[in-house]
Amino acid sequence: MRTAAAISVVEAHKRYGRTQALRGVSLTVVPGEVRGLIGENGAGKSTLVKILSGAIPADSGDVLVQERPARFHNPKDALRAGIATIYQHRSLIPHLSVLENVELGREQVVGRLPLLRRRANESTWLALEAVELAAKAHAGVGSLSTHEQQLVAIARALSWEASVVIFDEPTVGLTLHEVEQLFRVIERLRQRETAVIYVTHRFFELNRLADSVTVMRDGEVVATLAKKDATEDRLVESMSPGSTSVARQPATERPNSRDTKVVLSISEARCSDDTFREVDFDVHAGEIVAVTGLADSGATEFCESIVGVRSMKAIGFVLADRQVKGGSPAEVLDAGIGYIPRDRSRRGLLGSMAIGQTVTISSLHRLSWPGIIRFRSDAQTARVWLDKLAVKREDERLPMQALSGGNQQRVLIARALATRPKVLVCEDPTDGVDTAGREHIYRVLRDAADAGIPVVLSTTDLSEILRLASRCVVFRSGVVHTELHAPHLDEDAILAALFGQSIRKTGQ
């Protein structure tokens, strides 16, 4: 007996000016299926998601929900039809509570006066329990972590009893623990016979979750593969014919830099909220050192403290033989620490700022005299770094919001390197970036290290650690649990350290 499709797209076309974003795209997902959607930046994934979510209309083609034609004029129409979309950047209202955000747009009134009912709907509580967030129902959304805000958005979709949930790069900026929690929620959706469309650039997530994977290239669907056939090699070849899988490329042997000069030295560091304590940390010239840990391990908080996002007390904080006062991002930037933040929407970007200005805004002290910006130098500097990072753009004067997420990330890396940092701190630098883009960023980071700029890599992506780092510092329970050095740095050793198994410090 044939299973009725939860959602179908039939011959969808979409054009933006001269750009043909979609060329006759067709896609069908059945209830209880998790369909992976993958493709390089510009392949058409975002345009397809926007059409399914009601954000934009297709020029031609049909969307069918439960095999019935659907017409969406806005995202609320799609939500009423049972299609919920969870974006990287959640559309939540920070000053409202979790409950209020989940029920927004569905508030019930009592009597004739438009007074909101104080008691939440039963469906709201069930949705919050499903995402393990019922205990924080009355907390303000603005006080939640990025992952918890994502769970609020998922709860809102569940409370609307969505038959289709679309996830757009949902693990960007999440810790390993948070990723696992998200996977549990998606598994519950599968068990409820909810259809899931899962957009990602991370192959291991597709291997864990997807029943099948659809590959897009140049606005077209070029392949739909069953789970057993969706190997990394097949996916990479489908996305970009002639490319070689990341997994098949030999990892570059990075030299052990412990004999080179210490560029950054922090001793007996403690966070003001005690999330980490008694941390000694040295970084050497030419080194790429990874810092990782599970949720609440202190790893993320420690890296944020280095760049002044969090308050840190330390007996010593020395950068290039100079004592650093720290205390704010502006002070550490002035001292020579470049920063690529994990959450680019909150800490990295001003969407309305021009692309070129975003690159040079942290370097204006070198591009102005006396207090007057030299616009020719400013524009030239922007173009040099945008070209180095291969940022695809029509004009440097366009706003940042005109770029794809992957290209926005490259702009942030260009901005950090344009400051000529003495140390570069990167948080998940390839989140939301396609396969080819990741390889380019890896080369840029290696080139920086080879030029003597040490890189501190804060990431939960084990493959990234193995590709780039010669040393990995693993945090657990607020302290440094283990340091692993090449050639003993491997996935099993990192996982063992993350989960608290005793390992001696290797490679020393």
Secondary structure class reads: alpha/beta
Count of DSSP-assigned helices: 17
Rough outline: globular
Portion of residues in helices?
Answer: 25-40%
Distance between the termini: 63 Å
Question: Tell me about the biggest sheet?
Answer: 6 strands, mixed
Describe this structure in words.
- This protein has 508 residues and is an alpha/beta fold.
- The protein has helices at 45-52, 75-80, 98-103, 122-130, 146-159, 176-191, 203-209, 232-239, 299-306, 329-335, 344-348, 355-360, 375-388, 405-418, 435-450, 462-468, 491-498, and strands spanning 7-16, 19-29, 34-38, 60-65, 68-70, 83-86, 164-168, 195-199, 212-217, 220-226, 262-271, 279-284, 288-292, 312-313, 316-319, 322-323, 337-340, 423-427, 455-458, 471-476, 479-485.
- The strands form four sheets. The protein has a six-stranded mixed beta sheet, with helices on both faces. Strands 17-18-19-13-20-21 form a six-stranded mixed beta sheet, with helices on both faces.
- A hairpin with a 2-residue loop joins strand 20 (471-476) and strand 21.
- Helix 4 crosses helix 5 (146-159) and helix 13 (375-388) crosses helix 14 (405-418).
- The chain is globular.
Short description:
The chain is an alpha/beta fold. Helices cover 31% and strands 23% of the residues.
